Amino acid sequence: MNGALTVVGLGPGGPHWLTPEAATILHGADALYGYGPYLDRVPVRAGQSRHVSDNREEGARAAAALRHAATGANVALVSGGDPGVFAMAAAACEQIERGEAQFKQLEFAVVPGITAMLAVAARVGAPLGHDFCAISLSDNLKPWELVERRLDAAAGAGFVIALYNPISRARPWQLGKAFERLRRHLPAATPVVFGRAVGRADETVAVAALERADPSQADMATLIIVGSPATRVIERPGRAPLVYTPRSADGAGA
Amino acid sequence: MNGALTVVGLGPGGPHWLTPEAATILHGADALYGYGPYLDRVPVRAGQSRHVSDNREEGARAAAALRHAATGANVALVSGGDPGVFAMAAAACEQIERGEAQFKQLEFAVVPGITAMLAVAARVGAPLGHDFCAISLSDNLKPWELVERRLDAAAGAGFVIALYNPISRARPWQLGKAFERLRRHLPAATPVVFGRAVGRADETVAVAALERADPSQADMATLIIVGSPATRVIERPGRAPLVYTPRSADGAGA
User: Could you tell me if A140 lies within 8 Å of chain B, comparing CB atoms?
Assistant: First the structure.
């Protein structure tokens, strides 16, 4: 079977973060599949078909892309950020494992991209400079108790924490609960970074102390980074403060 | 003061993972600072100075780049992977906080890149498809007991674990100890991915069960991903197996 599916990461923002590899694969594909706003970021090429789907239909979208590839086509499934981080690569693997038997015979590849936490971190300094974790607050995919257990474990062990999918119409209270939970473990002054639409024209970045971090500042396009007790804020005259986590656990540098 | 320092991520491998933003900044800089093998990946441009340093001198390298920027120059400090993940962005922030007072007046920016765990994950499927963490095994920057506490916390709470800086001449036993520690928490069959020099001509990727994971397979260029109990291996006829972690905690998909 000659068909191929490639899951392609666009990065979090504009074309300045799209890798040459991703651009080449997107240009060469016979067909593109993806959520509308992501497909809108890919230049139109004559002779290439486009298949737009809703954001909630990840499994169905991956299956449709695999079925198309099984006809012998070279299909690209686009993903925001990095496809491997709370995105389309796992959805495609789920379909390869459990879907039609022919899906296992297809060529399958993933093209990495810059994931949102790296872009947000870059905007403020280096908050992910020491051990860190990434947690999705989307509790339609796991029980809320498990989210809390992971927040406890991560904060208790000194990880910086990146929160993906912090809030949505279907998930209005989770971020507030997460902040409450983290306040049990972390100092009141722990820096919290809100990075919204980073890399896009409407980008906003804000830093707040955990005790005053306001969940209503976040929306679906926001990625949040909660510091560890080691995370520091550098005030600078006439410039925005920097947020970073020293490489050394005792903050002594090297 | 007009000087500027930009810390630029090259991504983990060849030019296909260098973002357009990084390429633009590197081309426009008056001076480049960095570890030799990273600088070797940046095309030479006439009129641009190059300042090579040893890999162990991160603090001194960052300070030298900042002092150069303070003369009014536009300086780029190159970093492998993403500068914010166990790399040069935190080293630069440390110098801005504690070094010469003038460093706080400089323009400072970070250009994100693809970090090694994303590239390694892409090669095998989607092992980082659910909650995950990144831990550096470099214990010259933290006590080994803290590394073990974080391994315990992460494995116990079901995070997939990416291990950076797994081994070196100065750090020969840490990876073996880490595997031993993780075997206390995780099933014997848990997939472990060894990704070496991913994106380069000498790339190798291997997958082993945790019970048989051999630390001697890793070197300084290796990034390791240890699955969670939910991580799965998909066998495919005539193709390399895929490794992925389902998006849903119960593995049911969505």
Answer: yes
Residue A107: CB atoms within 10 A of its CB come to 13
* Residue whose C-alpha is closest to residue A34's, from A71, A72, A68, A3: A68
Q: How many CB atoms lie within 10 A of CB B112?
A: 34
Indicate yes or no: CB of A150 within 8 angstroms of CB of B158.
yes
Nearest to A94 among B93, B149, B253 (CB): B253
Q: Which residues of A touch B157 (CB under 8 A)?
A: 149-150, 152-154
Pairing of strands A222-226, B4-9: unpaired
* B74/B6 Cα distance (integer angstroms): 8
Query: Whole-number mean pLDDT of chain A?
Result: 94
Hey, is the C-beta of B100 within 8 angstroms of any chain A C-beta? no
Single out the residue of B249, B162, B114 nearest to residue A86, CA to CA: B249
Residue A251 has pLDDT above 70, yes or no: no
Of A17, A121, A158, the CB nearest to B84: A121
pLDDT tens profile B152-174: 999 999 999 999 999 988 889 99
Write down the pTM of the prediction. Answer: 0.97
CA distance A123 to B142: 26
Would the CB atoms of A247 and B108 count as touching at under 8 Å? no
Residue among B84, B96, B253 minimizing CB distance to A122: B84
Q: Name the 3-class secondary structure at A238.
A: coil
Tell me which residues of chain B have a pLDDT lower than 70: 1, 139, 250-254
Element housing A182 (H / E): helix A174-183
- Please check whether residue B40 is in contact with residue B57, taking contact to mean a CB–CB distance below 8 angstroms: no
Listing DSSP states for B129-150 in one string gives SSSEEEEE--TTSS-HHHHHHH
